Amino acid sequence: MFEGEKLLRGLEGWHFIVLALVFILLFGAKKLPDSARSLAKSLKIFKSELKDGDAKKEDPNNK
Prior knowledge:
- This protein is mainly α.
- It has one domain (about 5-60).
- The protein has helices at about 5-10, 15-25, 30-60.
């Protein structure tokens, strides 16, 4: 078991609510949807790059 698993096992539902409230207070309710969209777009690009990298490893003719 690594350190992150120990940390997540101790978290309860109310911890996540408090964390969400802190984010809302820090970033404001107007910026949160934009931030979520940006994060989703970044994850989509990251996943597509991972797939492209795997395809290049499997194809010996592709350099």
